[in-house]
Structure formats: C-alpha cells, structure tokens
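Changelog entry: the Mannosyl-oligosaccharide glucosidase record was regenerated in this release. Current contents:
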Amino acid sequence: MAPTSSRQPRQLSLVLTLFLLCFNALFGQVAAHEDEAILNSEIARLNNQSLLWGPYRPNLYFGVRPRIPKSLMTGLMWGKVETYTDYQTSLRYTCEQNEGMKGYGWDEYDTRRGGVQSIHDTENGIDITTSFVKVPGGANGGSWAARVKGQLQEDVSKDRKTAVILYVTQEGLGTLEAVKGEDENGYEGDVTLNGNSAALGDYKLVLTKGKGKHPKSDHKVTEVRGDAHTVVQSLNYQEEFLWQAKGIVFKQLKESVDAFVEKYFDKEDPPPAWQVFQLENRPGVGNAQIIQRVFEGDFEFDILFSSASAGKELSSADLTREIQEATESFGERFSSIFEIKAPFNADKYKKFGRSMFSNLIGGIGYFFGESVVDRSYAPEYEEEDEGFWEEAAAARARNKPTLEGPYELFSSIPSRPFFPRGFLWDEGFHLLPIADWDIDLAMEIVKSWYNLMDEDGWIAREQILGAEARSKVPEEFQTQYPHYANPPTLFFIIDEFVTRLSKANGSMPVVKEHLSQGVPLASASIDNIEVGLEYLRRIYPLLRRQFYWFKKTQYGDIKSYDREAYSSREAYRWRGRTVPHCLTSGLDDYPRPQPPHPGELHVDLMSWVGMMAKSLSNIAKVIAPEEVEDYTKVLDGIEHNLDDLHWSEKDGCYCDATIDEFEEHQLVCHKGYISLFPFLTGLLKPDSPKLGKILALIGDEEGLWSPYGIRSLSKKDENYGSAENYWRSPIWININYLVITQLYNVATQEGAYQETARDLYQRLRKNVVEAIYNSWEETGFAWEQYNPETGKGQRTQHFTGWTSLVVKIMAMDDLPEPVAVPAAAAPAVESEEYVKDEL
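Regenerated structure tokens:
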C-alpha cells in the first residue's frame, strides 16, 4: 500500500499542473481575444470620431455636416450687391458649371484633419478662402471650426459690397436657437447659436465678428433700418424643404424687400442696393437660421462649432493654430506618400498634384435619403428576345417605380458641379489614390457601398439619395433597376487591401501600450493584422454575393448557339443595352454590335468577372480556403474563353461578339478601349503571344495613340468622333491609368515585350500628365475627358474624380533607360520585332 499512497500525491500534482497549464493557456487566449475586441472597438470609435465632421456637402462651395442622418448642416452663400439685380444673378451656393469661376477647390485637404480651399469668383470680383479644421475630443465627435476670408480681386473697386450668408439647419429631434443681440436691428459682434440633438448632444455655434468694414449710408431710411449690421432670421420649415436654401433665402428676401419698398422706397431718392436687400432681424428658435452680413472690401470671420462634451469652447486662436498644424502635416504627408518622380520634379507639378489629390479627397460626401427603384421584375427585363430593348423600354414606361430607403452613403464623387453623388464604377478609381493616403478611409467608403447591397447581391450603379440629389438628375435617369450591373471597380481596393495586409509585419501590438500611444487611424487595419482580417471576414460574404449576382444576372448564352468554347458557362452580357448605348458598362456610347441581340457577348464584362474571381480567390485563401477552387475554376474558364469567344486573329485584338443572320457566332471589332480589357484587368499573361499585338494596338499612331493619351476609339473606326462622341474618340484618364499601370508591369518584368512596354509606358505617362496639367494651368479645372486632337479638357469641368489618378501616375517610376532582355528570353525576339513593325 505504501507505494500506492506515494503515487497519489505525484498523480494529483501532475493533474493539478496540467490543469493549471490548460487554465493559463485558455485564460491567455481569452485575454488575447478580449484585447482584440477592445482594440477593434477603440479603433472603430476613434475612426468614427475623426471622420464624423467634414465638408460632406460637396455639391456646395462650402457646406459642413456630420455623417449622421437628420442632423446639423451649414452652407455658405455670397454675392455682390452693387445693383438691385445682383442678388438674383450673383449669389453663390451650389457648385455650378460656367458660373464665372476661374477655378475653385481644395489646395490641401486631409479628411481627418481639414484643409484650405480657394475659390476664384471672377464674376463677383472676389477670391474666397475657406479653411476648415477638426478638433477631436468628447463623446459626441468633437468640435470643428472654419475661417472664411474674402479678398477683392485687383481690377475691382475697393468699395465693392459683398453679402455673405451662413445658412444653418437642424433636422430631426433637437433644438436650434439664435441668442438675441443687444440691438434690435442686428448684431455688432459675434452671433451665437445654441443647439442640441440626440446624436450631437449640446453644442454651440459661433459666427465671430471677425475683420472687415461694413458699409455706411446717410440715406434717410438708415434711421429705420440702421447701418449694415449682422442680421439673423430664425425660421421653421418642414424638413423636406430645408435643403432648398437658395429658395428659402430668396423667399425671405422678397418678403423683406416688399415690406420695405411699400413703406420706405422713394424712386426719386432710392437707397443703396445693400440696404434694400437686407433681411429683417428676427432671431429666435427655428430649424433654419439665416445669418446675413454685408461687407465693403475685404473681410474675414470664423465659424466655431463647440461640442459641450469636449469640455472646452473653441476660440479663433485655436483655429489659427489648428490651420497651421494641418497645413504642415499635409505638406509632410503628401511629399512622403506621393513622391513625384521625374520628369515632373518642378514645383509646379507638386502644386498641381496637391491640388488634384486634395480635390479628390475633399469631394467626399455623406448622403442620406430615399432612392427611386423599379422592382417590378417585368419579364421584358430578362432581355431574352430579339428586339428586347424596345420591349424593355415599353415596360419601363408602363411600370411605376417606388421610393426605397432611406439609405446612407459615404462616397467620393466625380464632379462637384455636375455629378455630386455616388457612382459605383467611378468609386473604385477614386479610392486608388485615397487608399495610398488613408487605407482605412478607403475601406470605410467600400463598407458604406456594400451596406447598400440588397439580399440578391445588387448595388445600384448610381446613388441618387434624397430630394436634393434628385434635383440634379433628369427624371428619366433617376430610376435604378435591380438587373442593371456596373463595373465592380471596388475590387481594385479590396485587392490593394489584401496585398498590403499580406505584407504587414508581426502580430497585434499590446493593446494598452497601443492605445496609450494613439492609434494611427490611416492604417490601423493594416498595422493590426487581426483588425484587417476581421474586416475581411465581415465583407467577404458580401463580395461573394455580388460575384454570384453577376454570374446569375449577366450571363451570356453559349449553349443555345452551339458556340465552341473551353467552358460552357463563362460568357457574359451587359443587361440594359439599347441601340445607341450600353450605359451599364460605363462606356455609354462606345460602339457595340448592331442591332443588339440576346446572343451578344461583351469582352469587357467577362474581364471584370475574371478580375472579381481572381480577387476573391486571394481573399478566400485567408478567409475561406475551401472555396478557393470555386474561383480558380471560374478564372480558368474565363481566361480560356476570352480567347475562344473574343479573340480575333484577323484584327489582332479582343472583340465583342454577336449572332449573325445564320445564327452563327460572329466577332464585331471596334478597336479601342474594349479591345484592351483583358490586358487592363491583368488577365493577359506576360508570356502570351497576344500581348505583342495588344501593345501594337496601343502604340498605333493612326489608331489609338495620340500625343495626349490613348483614344477611346481608333481613328480608323467608322464611328470615330460620331454622334454623341462621348466614348468614341476622347481620352479618358481612368482607362489611360490602367494602360500605364499594365505597361509598367510588363516593362519591369523579364520578357519578350519588356522594352516595347517600357518605351510605351515612358511616352504615355509623360503625354497624359502634360495634357492634364496644361489644361489645369490654363482653365483652373480638371476635366472629364481630353480632346485627342488638341489635348484640351472638355465636357464636365471640375472633374476631380478619376482624373485625379494623375497624382498616382506622377508618382510612378521613371524608366528612361532600356531594360536589357535576358538571354533566356531571346527565342521570343520575333514577337518583339512584330510589335516594332506594327508600331
């Protein structure tokens, strides 16, 4: 028995030791998971706080709001008041094309800090500068401030009168009240608004007295109306009308002017215009507050928003300090992130690059409202019969769409005056430079888009949310259709995120230490791998759903027409085609097979689906390894079918396909952007013999090549420059960026076409940058597209969406020297010579 009794304590000790080891291991895992949860939560909180406020009303020259539905919003107006008609013609509020501007936009801007905007209003003879900063702190998203400066232009009389109006509204539950001043006619000093809401808590908004001379008048009505004070009118309007700021201001002005004219106006001795067009001072409680000032000459004042939860009210001194720090921070970050390479080393290009990027990121907006959608799922929308476009048009005219939502979207817009809303295929291009600057901001925007996805996997290609957004869009273009697709360019950003995450070093930092040092929010999801992986886990099901929605709704017919192809499943056709347009493709009027046919196949769409499959395969390797084979099988089928169904050996390019009169597969080749899509989306392998012919097509000076960039359609095509001429000759920067990127990839890899690609890359990069810069220097604007004959910008002005990709192009490597082709690649020289001959 003695031996047994001696073993028991040792066994007990061993069991206890194992138990303690398991307990500690388990406790350690629990603690690690708790740390990860805390870090995720803290990053989300700080991220939301740093992005809460901004000039998120990009359709206005300057308008601030939070990323909160139904909340506080501000908007700035100004205009000269020299004559009685000036107000109607010169009052600025919403960004408009051809409004007498010599350029406007952000000179520097960081979404998390703020920046400086310059507006050169030649018609009003004044330059307006708006500086905006954010000051974090408190539980309700922190505080913010803005400085508004007006400086008369050199050729303008120094006694020019300028009216300035700040329009402030509060939607939803809450209050907004203007504190009364000492003078019943107006305010000599600061104007204070006190407000509160559930999301913002208590807050104070102060319009400081600032600097500047107010006009004086010795007219007899001065005894009644007084000199030019600051006046406030507090109003209550139904929420659905609050966005109509200009209309409301004009309505109140008319009431004031009518009452004034009836009592005091003397035709023989009329008072000055600024005195007539002055609102009556009626401060108080109201969900709309109009604050009006009139200046003579230059002026400056501050707008200070202080959240009570921050515990400190902002001052003008705080604003001055924050503007200086934001400017210094932006300059340092821009130089380090976008290192401009030769031959663009001159300071003029750096100034240009800062402006282009700042206007891209300064064009981010927050949108909230209902969307017009046709969910009738009419059988005509299947587009299965010949003449389907006529049947679909009749169904659209017959069906009545409905309002859905409300929805919210955080998005970077293409153009403040013309396209101030979210566009799905534009967004992926917009986010490429933004991801370089702030990958977490880019992923926040991606998440916002995928939050709009319906249960089938559809995202509307154009987000026209709310009455204000709809006011900019003709009624016939407002309705969204759940069978319409759009190029899935957000996968560009998903790919970039996965690539950067795969290069991240090490494990997650210790939470307490990390938080005490401050979280670098621009890259928090990359610096903390588990945070990035958690993001992928959440968004992957949505990406997968969208992918299979494409495959289900945009499939192309192979079997019905006995087409010979490697895969019987991989073929695709855009829905929504008409005779002149394929709007869903993004390439609107680019020539397609005529007439449209249900057996049509589109090479650009197949390329996009292939890109999605490739991207999802990379994500699945980390998130869902068991699904990788599903995507690689699709990708394999697409890579083969691109050649089987879309390659024309005769034309030396990829083409759309249709069905001819004998029910046979027929290629329809319009050489241009469509021909390049397998190359543009990275599906063309560097050793493919077809690459040589694609490079020859790009470099053909009688076809696509121009001194200013790659044309959208070959000069040799019968449709070149015809009809609307939207995608039938002009140079588009998003496609040129993809061409430049893929040329760089070929030029920096060993292969038969390395030197040809390097030469094309070097010349095209320079041509594109110079065209955009020269037009910007001449007009003050970036443009939607560029003329292939002159290089001048055309169509929509202030198109700082994908045209801002020029910043990335300038930051790409200069490759001035030929790269020697290794001896192992010598057997392929014949193909290289073929390209040179073609060029």
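The mean pLDDT is 91.
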